[in-house]
Amino acid sequence: MPRLIWSPVKYRKFSIGDIIILLFIGSIIYSIATLNTIYSKPTQQIDLDLSPLKLPLYAILSLIRMIFAYIISLIFTIVYAYAAAYKKNLEKILIPLLDIFQSIPVLSFLPPVFMAVISLFPGSKIGLEITSIILIFTGQVWNMVFSFYQSLISIPRDLREAAKLLKLNPWQRFWNLELPYAAIGLIWNSMMSWAGGWFFLMACEMFTLTNQNFVLPGIGSYLSFSAIKGDLTKIFYGLFTLIIVIILLDQLVWRPLLAWGQKFKIEFIQDEETYESRVLLWYRRSRIFEFIKNHISDPLKERLNQFFVRYYTEKVLKTQNTPILPKIFNIIVSTFIGLLILRGAFGLLNLLIKLPISAWIEIINAGILTLLRVSLAVIIALLWTLPLGVKIGMNPKLSKIFQPIVQIVASIPATAIFPVIVMYLLNLPGGLNLASIILMLLGTQWYLLFNIIAGGMSIPKDLIEVAKLLKLNRKEQWKILILPSILPYLVTGGITAMGGAFNASIVSEYIEFQNKVIKIKGLGALITEASSTGNNALLAGSTITMAIMVVTINRLFWKRLFKKSEELLS
Amino acid sequence: MELLKLENITVSFTFPEGTVTVLDNINFTVNERDFLALLGPSGSGKSTLLRIIAGLIKPNKGKVYFKGEEIKDINPGVAMVFQNFALFPWLTVLENVELGLKAKGLPPEERRKKATEAIDLIGLDGFENAYPKELSGGMRQRVGFARALVMEPDILLLDEPFSALDVLTAENLRNDLIELWIEKRIPTKAIILVTHSIEEAVYMADRIILLSKDPGRMIKEIRIDLPHWRDKKSQEFLEIVDEIYSTLTGKPLEKILWKEKRHIQIPEASVGSITGLVELVNDLEGKADIYKLGEELLMDVEDLLPIVEACELLGFAEVKEGDLILTEAGKKFAEADVLERKEIFKTLAIEKVPFLKQIVKVLQSKSNHKVPRAFFLDLLRKNLTPKEAERQLDTLIDWGRYAELFEYDDDKDELYLPETSELINLYSEA
Questions:
Q1: Which is the most buried residue in A14, A282, A290, B173, by most CB within 10 A?
Q2: Does position A39 have pLDDT exceeding 70, yes or no?
Q3: Which of B91, B102, B147 minimises the CB distance to A305?
Q4: In terms of pTM, does the model score above 0.90?
Q5: How far is CA B355 from each of CA B213, B269, B380, B401, B416, rounded to the nearest angstrom?
Q6: Chain segment B199-238, per-residue pLDDT in tens
Q7: SS3 B44
Q8: Residues of B in contact with A301 (CB under 8 A)
Q9: Is A161's CB within 8 Å of B84's CB?
């Protein structure tokens, strides 16, 4: 498995740009949240039918939401990454912005998104649906953008030159060069994004806002509702359905996609890991696919190609005399963004000023507690994933057996079994603390495991042989061979795991179970509570604190470690 | 008829440390039926020049004309074959070859017909639906040629297209190209080949433009009137090769200028390769033809020249008419044992390389005898690009370590004098 998630190769120092962006986000949160007061009319309490017979329907509803969110993510990914990769002045803002967006938990997006959508579709179910879809979108889009951006900027020079000399127009360049080059990274990150989507589905289908409950029929809300009622059997039914959906998706969509994606590998050398999929073979032999290809997609592609050839030839002729237009466009866009940032900075300041010192003290205390839990979760995860991951990675036979299993297990959202865990741990001293750490662990240990396996697989075979010949003992092997080789993978996994654990705190520190709210002190609980009670100042303050914490830890700790490991290996 | 004209082409890059000129005032024209080779060591900017002709890079100064019209964007009359093929791995052979036609907006049937013709012409029939990764290197480059030829360019640009292939495959492909060219089976009106292989240039081209390095300047233009197919062992062939060798190993103007500026740049050759070459020449009675040496050692000019230059600089050998002749010092060095060698090398290096002397002086003047690498790097950067400075310092460290002038700690990135060694008296011979 390639190192795909956050490859922190291209990183800049924390800059003024980052601060501007922090202000920017906060401002969006603020400006839309002020609409809150205008539109807070009571909506009817929706109940949910918990009959297991409804589960297939719920599963499909959830799936549709996920698909919509994913399509929006894809479009957003392409537009955003394109802008970042090709507009040098935008890149400086857009890339650090990604880092920050990724560190903001989905629930922090809830009030602004909800208010904006409801103001467009007042009082309708469509509004709720769109809110939910956008929430899922905010949970899955960022790593995809990063992956696509990384691919765009790392396209080999000679391929770019070949495309230029063949005079490919932007449309052809996209389909023949950029998208294929980015495909493998995009497929892997899409899988991660879907896993993330399932993880936060419960929060995205059932949420509380300014003390009103909103429920959308779906498998996430089914699980949340069952948890609130404390109905273990129902939780089990829901979980069972969810696992089936995930396995089906894995077998019918992701495996075939991975196998198909092999053709986009850029290196010409033979690679040991290949992905096979019988289902892909089925698809390839399928008549319907063939029919679609021959009679719909191929002719359509041809038409589009001809259209764009004509379009760009004319455009070149037209714009030859007016090169000012794009400049004006640039100026307008930059001014617009600049104004937004200014407006946002002002709004955010207004919002944060309202927060009393005591609230800030509470936020910081909560932040420290959450940081402790997150660190503990990552350390525990490291303790078991490090030896196991290396063992699997260094042994091709084991990795062939375990990789697919681990991938499926990892994509089962821990949030779904969380209520069960809570039930058993609640009565122990420090029960929720323990449960909270366990949930973080369940949600994020996989990032570490995947990356460590990949690291183990990357250790050169001849070095392993040398180590054997030198009869290095276990300790020396780890010190000299294994740790230095896997360090970059470890760091990549660590960044994702830690960021994920922070995000998971919003569901692990504050839960509704058996008609009770159970919470422990922490930044995640603060965010969830602020969001559901409509305390926007507190929401903004705690979200910004979390974003700053995540970004700071990444830059001061992980990225330094990464640099160190790069030096070691070069 | 004149196809292409380059006028005062100059390219330079600006770094914080200063400006580096890559190409300096290049002028030439290419006429119909010209097969031109641009020949020069790495750093002579020959690939950059090819990209300027293609319109991929804009020169800082000067103009390129194609059929009398100034090139402002991609040159409309060229196609290029790349050193590392630059094929799209996700497209089949046929799709790769078709791509440029698709960009032109040709309908599918016409595209297929033309692409198939090009594929047949270059000897790839049967592989239309294979992916590049299924092909050997030679076959891949054939796809590269088919992709370029299908566009029916007026000028075919070749960027070291044979250098990534093994010897036999390269030879095979060269001959196939010459055949297509001399039998006029392709509508191409001119070919420009970039190469660092003298033999390849003399074997294929009708005109050779020799470029010097740092900065790239045209030092000589040679016409080759030998008819095809050329015999590589013939007297005429070898004479031309020798002529080019001595031009390239001769001292171009800028080297003399450097000495005047007391600019001290040493050739990038490791002590190991210098020793190896001196020993080899000594075994050959102290005299060897450089071209034959290169052939025997399977080395390109690019790799061999710095070693030859280093031998000259240290006074181990002299170059005369394409021959490398050992001096007395060189013979003594070749026959000495390991310790004596180090002594000889040390004396000569200190004498001939002022910068080594400067390093030792600086180290001696420090009370702890340690100086970070970055310090010397900064000194070198005053006259060199950052990359050159790095390589220069690496070579200096290699020489200095061998001569036991100083030691180097790779972990701490610092140069130091070993505590046991006595201080070298640098001033004795001054």
A1: B173
A2: no
A3: B102
A4: no
A5: 22, 16, 9, 14, 15
A6: 899 999 999 999 988 788 898 899 999 998 898 888 899 8
A7: coil
A8: none
A9: no
